[in-house]
Design a protein that fits this description.
377 residues, 6-stranded mixed sheet, 11 helices
């Protein structure tokens, strides 16, 4: 009993120590944000984005961090450039890059013009720098609507139509998809129902396949016990907790940088894995602990909704849809684990020593690796 108490105390100390660590993942690249205005004969868009990452050729569709990528050295060289030098590099590369930005009318891709770029001073080179690109495309005759998007390698993109107030179209695009058709003679809008259903998919994708750290955490909950009550207690506590902080963070009431949140999420994975191995077995304590970790994971989820232009009129629908999608993703993970492992081996005498414990060790090991990587690399 004393040993377990000491181990538990040590684990909590390591976890809390992570709060005091310096900023990690400094070169995490945020999704681009595109404000588009569609006129009768021209469409113009201002995109807030990382110019350095696209010049370096980093595939942000696979990973939104520059650290560890093959193009990291090139990125750092661009990141150290003064605004004038970086603008010159962008103009030199524009003939090749222009095709990666798409204005589409009637399935025809239009020529894109770079009208201007606003690049901040170098500042702290250990932090990503967001510039603003102004692009335009001459529209063909007629009243056919316009779609906009960019290449999948540039990562996620938020598209917002300018001039329509709170009901104007806003979308979070992934995998190189295009916006919905935006009319030339008015403003595209979305109903709350459409936003709700769209964000269910966004939430699900944030777990499967994009949220590997969240998947491992949920698997850590699964390998704690195969009994229904512990699983339901933990998942319910986790759900309530991440819903609270997701709402608070998305509204800007609570703000904690991802550089702190992400290493702590990794440490939470370490904790549940080690606790599974040691078999602490106190359901009440475990449920309370999972609730605390859920508050932390909610801050991680908020990165999807935080600055993506969700208007006040659609915020509740987006938040609810995203949470439903996250829950579907978590339940899918648990169901898959049960069908693959629990159903066949859960009642075997050797299930815990040969399956649950080794799996928990592997989960803790991966979490420890991520903790180190997210702090020091």
């Amino acid at each position: 009993m004393l040993f377990r108490t000491l181990v538990r105390t040590a684990l909590l100390s390591i976890f809390l120590f992570g709060i005091s660590l310096p900023d990690a993942r400094a070169h995490e690249i945020d999704p681009g944000i595109a404000d588009i205005e569609v006129g009768a004969d021209i469409a113009t868009v201002d995109i807030e984005m990382s110019v350095e990452s696209i010049l370096a050729g980093i595939d942000l569709g696979l990973n939104n961090e520059t650290a560890g990528s093959p193009e990291e050295e090139a990125y750092e060289q661009f990141r150290a450039m003064a605004p004038g030098a970086l603008e010159s590099a962008l103009e030199a590369a524009w003939p090749a890059l222009s095709a990666q930005f798409q204005f589409v009318v009637d399935d025809e891709t239009l020529a894109v013009t770079l009208d201007g770029v606003q690049i901040p001073d170098v500042g702290n080179i250990d932090l990503a720098r967001n510039s603003i690109l102004t692009l335009s495309a001459a529209l063909p005759e007629g009243a056919a609507p316009v779609q906009f998007g960019w290449h999948t390698s540039f990562g996620p993109l938020v598209v917002r139509q300018v001039g329509g107030g709170e009901d104007a179209y806003t979308a979070f695009l992934t995998d190189g998809e295009l916006s919905q058709p935006l009319p030339r003679d008015g403003i595209a809008t979305e109903s709350a129902g459409a936003v709700f259903w769209r964000y269910i998919l966004v939430g699900f994708e944030h777990i499967i396949p994009l949220g590997l750290d969240h998947i491992l955490f949920v698997l850590g909950l699964f390998f704690f016990s195969l009994r229904i009550r512990p699983i339901i207690s933990q998942v319910t506590a986790f759900t309530i907790a991440h819903t609270i902080t997701l709402a608070l963070a998305s509204l800007g009431i609570v703000t904690i940088p991802a550089s702190m949140v992400e290493p702590l999420i990794a440490l939470s994975i370490v904790y549940v894995g080690v606790e599974n191995v040691l078999g602490f077995g106190n359901l009440r304590y475990r449920t309370a602990l999972v609730f605390g970790f859920g508050l932390l994971h909610g801050l991680g989820f908020a990165s999807v909704l935080g600055d993506f232009g969700i208007t006040a009129s659609h915020f509740v629908a987006a938040l609810l849809g995203f949470n439903v999608g996250v829950e579907f993703g978590q339940l899918a993970v648990i169901l898959a684990a049960f069908l693959i492992v629990g159903l066949w081996f859960g009642k075997k005498d050797w299930y815990r020593p040969y399956i649950a414990v080794p799996a928990s060790v592997a989960i803790a090991a991966v979490g420890l690796y991520w903790s180190i990587e997210r702090v020091f690399f």
